Amino acid sequence: AARRRVVRIVSVTGIGGSAVAGGTSLLYLAIIRSQGDQSVASVTPWAVTFLLCAIVGVVASYVESPRSRSLLFAAVAGTMLGVGFLAIFSIGMLLILAGVLFALAASRAVTSGRVRDALMPCVVGAAACVVVPAALLIAG
After folding, report:
1. What is the pLDDT of residue 77?
2. Quick check: 1 pLDDT over 60?
3. What is the DSSP letter of 10?
4. Is the dihedral of CA 122, 124, 129, 131 positive or negative?
């Protein structure tokens, strides 16, 4: 018989990733404002993306379905990692930290031993890692 892991009521790593992502969003806006030479409006899509990832991370931390939880965490992990590498010389390390925490949360949410349940979050995360940063670059 296959052993089933029980999903925690709250994902601690998911909440941690959300705290880092949300804090980075606020830090980024504060840094841009302090420089004065660049309009905050030009970086708003980036900051909103970080904040949305933080919100989705909190929501995913409370989702009971392991599949939904893992897919949500994978999407925000991919987004944070992709954007983090683009921003590596400024706030990138914080975004990468958030992405790693979200990826850990996604891997812990997968409960079954089925390949599809483990593969789908990888596909979603990889797509988000490419699509979201590309959309932000095009929009900016």
Report:
1. 97
2. no
3. S
4. positive
